[in-house]
């Protein structure tokens, strides 16, 4: 666990009364891979659950390292790929289970969930009696078809969206936009939570100083037509603001969004005598002076 969505995995495990242990890292930092390896070496675990792209913090966890650890110690790997699928090239070989959705980075309509399986699903005993049939992947497998009605509109939209991924162009565009947005944000003297070497190249989490309110800044941006993320409880609690670089964004709109954000940061900072952050680099200092 190194973010809100890793913590939600523990909630799922707890609701199903599964026996598990949790290894936590500070929010904004990568997973503690050596700690994972040391725990796996004890030989008492059958599964490792983890989030690939931790949306809450903007950290991209190292899927290759997790797969390597599972290979070495004979564990199966379950991955939450909801945010990373379609945002970064993702190799699911060696992953037993992974989840994804039709919205987010894939850009189709929200409403479909994917389960990628490397193992043949089998449910038996009490679990079979407790598991809702719509959530029973074994039921889908055994039907040799589509056991329940699906929305043809959602499927058609997904089919259209996936055509963009016949090349790597969407990944390159997303990463390019991220780099320009991050540089501009840091030049404003703001701190991006995730270190550059562990940054998911599609969403930035900005840890605002206490002199700036994420709620007020986010609402001001929304009033100008820019929907930054700030309303989730875990963001408000930590005074964080997020900028996503997914989708069919136009360069002129990104430039205008950054100009408006810079204006609000400066005016709100002056109003509250905002000091330069210690994390701000030379470029940020020069810009503010």
Q: How are the elements arranged and paired?
A:
Layout: H1 4-15, H2 33-41, E1 47-51, E2 53-54, E3 59-60, H3 63-73, E4 76-80, E5 97-101, E6 113-117, H4 125-130, H5 137-143, H6 152-162, H7 169-187, E7 191-192, E8 203-207, H8 214-223, H9 233-238, E9 240-244, H10 251-271, H11 282-288
Parallel strand pairs: 1-4, 4-5
Antiparallel strand pairs: 2-3, 5-6, 7-8, 8-9
Helix pairs in contact: 2-3, 7-10
Quick take:
By secondary structure, the protein is an alpha/beta fold.
Please explain how this structure is put together.
With about 290 residues, this protein is of the alpha/beta class. It folds into 2 domains: about 5-165, Type I PLP-dependent aspartate aminotransferase-like (Major domain) (Aspartate Aminotransferase, domain 2), CATH 3.40.640; about 170-289, Alpha-Beta Complex (Aspartate Aminotransferase, domain 1). It is built from 11 helices and 9 strands. It has helices at about 5-15, 35-40, 65-75, 125-130, 135-145, 150-160, 170-185, 215-225, 235-240, 250-270, 280-289; strands at about 45-50, 55, 60, 75-80, 95-100, 115, 190, 205, 240-245. Strands 1-4-5-6 form a 4-stranded mixed sheet, with helices on both faces. Helix 2 (about 35-40) runs parallel beside helix 3 (about 65-75) and helix 7 runs parallel beside helix 10. The longest helix has 21 residues, at about 250-270. The chain starts with a helix and ends with a helix.
